[in-house]
Amino acid sequence: PELIGLGGPVGAYANGFTSTEALKHGGTVDVLHARHDLGPDAYADQAIGWVEAGASIVGGCCEVGPPHIAALRDRLEQASYEISGVLHA
């Protein structure tokens, strides 16, 4: 919420790992473990919270896949948020 006051776009995207503590500088995500409690609907719930807090750019990173983003898009559309500039990695 502090960044909202600066006037620029604010974004958020999370990964789906249980923890990132095992990740060393220069390491790879192969040492990390996926969360099993963060399905598409649960992720959409979290991301909608970011939007409600002022984020205008939302997405996902490692272990957050197309089903998660589809659920997020559906939830945003249901809440009448404008969706623009969709990027596909």
Q: Can you walk through the features of this model?
A:
- With 89 residues, this protein is an alpha+beta fold.
- The chain has one domain.
- Strands 1-2 form a two-stranded parallel ribbon.
- Helix 1 links the parallel strand 1 and strand 2.
- Helix 1 packs across helix 2.
- The chain is globular and about 40 Å long.
- The model has no long low-confidence stretch (mean pLDDT 89).
Largest sheet: 2 strands, parallel
Strand/helix succession: EHEH
Widest β-sheet, arrangement of strands: 1-2
The structural class is alpha+beta
**How big a fraction of the residues is strand?**
5-15%
Shape descriptor reads globular
Uncertain segments are none
Q: Please bin the fraction of helical residues.
A: 25-40%
Per DSSP, the total helix count is 2
> Cα-atom Rg, whole angstroms?
14 Å
Return the average pLDDT rounded to an integer: 89
Please report the total strand number as a whole number.
2
For the termini, the CA-CA separation is 27 Å
Q: What's the short version?
A:
The protein is α+β, with helices and mostly antiparallel strands.
What descriptors fit this protein?
globular; 89 residues; alpha+beta
Task: Outline the secondary-structure elements.
Layout: E1 11-14, H1 40-52, E2 57-60, H2 66-78
Parallel strand pairs: 1-2
